[in-house]
Amino acid sequence: MAEDPDPSPYLFVSMEQKRKDQTKPYDGKKMVWVADEKEGYVLGLIKETKGEMCTVEIEGQENRNVKKDLLQQVNPPKYEKAEDMSNLTYLNDASVLHNLRQRYVAQLIYTYSGLFCVAINPYKRFPIYTPRCMGMYRGKRRTEVPPHLFAISDGAYMAMLANRENQSMLITGESGAGKTENTKKVIAYYANVGASPKKGEVKKGPSLEDQVVQTNPVLEAFGNAKTVRNDNSSRFGKFIRIHFGPMGKLAGADIETYLLEKARVISQQTLERSYHIFYQMMSGGVDGVKEKCLLSDDIYDYHFVSQGKIEIPNVDDAEEMRLTDVKKCLLSDDIYEYHFQSQGKVEIPGVDDAQEFRDTDTAFDILGFNQDYKDEIYKITAACMHMGEMKFKQRPREEQAEPDGTEEGEKIGHLLGINAADLYKNLCKPKIKVGAEMVTQGRSAQQVLYSLGALAKAFFDRTFKWLVKKLNETLDTQQKRQYFIGVLDIAGFEIFDFNGFEQLCINFTNEKLQQFFNHHMFVLEQEEYTREGIEWVFIDFGLDLAACIELIEKYNGFEQLCINFTNEKLQQFFNHHMFVLEQEEYKREGIDWVFIDFGLDLAACIELIEKPLGILSILEEESMFPKATDKTFQDKLNSNHLGKSPNFCKPRPPKPGQQEAHFAIAHYAGTVAYNITGWLEKNKDPVNDTVVDQCKKGSNKLLTEIFEDHPGLGGDDKSGGGKGGGGRKKGSGFQTVSGLYREQLNRLMASLHSTQPHFVRCIIPNELKQPGKVNDSNPVPKLLEILVLVLLTCRLNSLGNTLSSRYE
């Protein structure tokens, strides 16, 4: 077997480069950083000072007259490409930006910022995740090895064993920053570290560590998609607990998922795709798949999946399909024959869907899925594509739809094991319960098409949840579990031209996580100074996100609101751990310390979303009223929050070609305008119960299994969501999408608060996805986003180190 390549050039600054860097001319009194519209900051030399003004010479530019207090000091050459920015002599925006930029250009993508690690997306593969590289970090202190994701991962592993405490790895950042890829590397590291080979033992079947790693291709095939900014965007959140025994050996794993973006199954924006699995199935990567799924050769035959971009650069869908495995789906060769999955951009240059398919196929085998299950998974997936091609027409002078051809319905009937004629009947004239009686209700062509979309989303969503359930069963060994390390991967903060309910949820989650980060980094750290007896005045860094979080729990669209809210929550978690808990620790240690409020509290935004009479609360209330409309929902939001909640504001007028927005939220990462069209229906998430009843009696055993907990026309849905489960109702009470989502998010935050967290912050260096390039056409937008967090953590860490050493 060939030896792994040497990772050193991508981890260390070479001795030759160090000599060059450290022999650069330096004048600490005259050399300064000057703000620049193009580069962010440029190096200058003070030529003359008159009062508060300085004349600065800049290479390649005319001299500038700049106010003295706008200039920033330059660090000595020995700090060039510093591994930990908390060690810099001068901590300012320019120095942090310069250090990150220089390291990135030198292909050093990881840098420490005091208490957390910064990871810049390299947009290419480096040999720094091999078993050889893993061995370099195993059991090493962070100061003994260069910055790396593995150093943070091993630190969490060693802390788990030493402190006998559960740990968590929070890998955060905006969409496209590299969170999912870093998450996969963390999981692979723990699988490697926790492996327990026994001498002389003959390996029988896939190992647990192999199975843990192989969950990734399956989850990505069914849960990831191309978006405008990310070719492999996670369209769901996941919290993976890696369980270990008392001696640190791998003992199993479980996966909890949050809010799959169901709308993407039937609709995509321009330059986007539906879920990867649809294109993998169309790629021909596994022999016989399309024929058995009754699919054509043309993706544009399927409208649901061909509304945007269907190819991804550097991804082979056929290879991915072979890693997933699919057969007997009666699919054609053209994804554009399937409307639901082809409304976005269906081609992604450089992405081989066939190879991706092969990867997914292999993963299913390693995870123990039998052939019958695999066949039925892909028949249901193919049925979602065929649903987008069913045609209906309106009867003359009647509010009644009728089939306009039955070919696609017959294919769906074959795939699902149900009678096609009954399917058309149940779509056009479903039964409804009126009192104690069942009556048929005529549907218009438009109503039938809407019902079809809802069914396709429900089929795919329930299949995804069933997959997660089966993965958890596979990873649930009988070995003793003592501790776990949780690895969180959620969609990053999103601001699109059109932002819906999903974006609100995503952004809300990120708001929560940022609040968690802020608390840990800026509050708990200062509390620690107080405990240590350090003389310290508490600093309020202004990082509380609570107002924004409460406003939401109190939309872009529904999906974006959910994503952004999740990010808001996680950012609050980050803030608390980085900036609050650290200071509390100082107090406990008796350090004389005045608490610093860093201004990172996100409570206002979080409360806007989740508190009583917050956005989600009003959405829940309106969803219960049969006569409620998008307009009544908008009016209630405005009457409760416009001019009253600081994070709730009017959106800007739309640009030409843009859809209007109905309100905006000032999130920690920027102001997002949300469009509320269709939120009430999305929140209620209705499906045709008559068709569900028919499916439950069909011959596709998986279809009956995924709808087992759905009441159909007969009663109450007893599912309550959770690990791989999923329904909309709970007991005898109706449960909305937002209600279930809030429950899941609260469980996630409770789980995170019970662990010792470790943070990795991923950032985008440029919008063109070019390796080694930091965006200089704009004022380095994505690096500047986190400079405040880097600076604050560096300053706090530096202060803490100084004071702690003083008191030792």
Describe the model.
With 808 residues, the protein is an alpha+beta fold. Strand 25 and strand 26 (670-674) form a beta hairpin. Strands 6-7-29-8-19-11-12 form a 7-stranded mixed β-sheet, sandwiched between helices. A 5-stranded antiparallel β-sheet has the order 4-3-2-1-5. The chain is 38% helix and 23% strand. The protein has 26 helices and 29 strands. Residues 16-25, 707-720 have a biased composition (Basic and acidic residues). InterPro entries: Kinesin_motor_dom_sf (IPR036961), Myosin_head_motor_dom-like (IPR001609), Myosin_S1_N (IPR008989), P-loop_NTPase (IPR027417), SH3_Myosin (IPR004009). One of its GO terms (cellular component) is sarcomere. Residues 27-76 form the Myosin N-terminal SH3-like domain. Residues 1-25, 707-734 are annotated as: Disordered.
CA-to-CA gap between the ends?
51 Å
Tell me the structural class: alpha+beta
Mass-distribution shape = globular
Strand content: 15-25%
The number of helical runs is 26
Q: What profile does the largest beta sheet have?
A: 7 strands, mixed
Instruction: Give Rg in angstroms.
Output: 28 Å
Could you report the average pLDDT, rounded to the nearest whole number? 85
Binding site for ATP: 173-180
Protein name: Myosin heavy chain, muscle
Pfam families: Myosin_head, Myosin_N
Region (Disordered): 1-25, 707-734
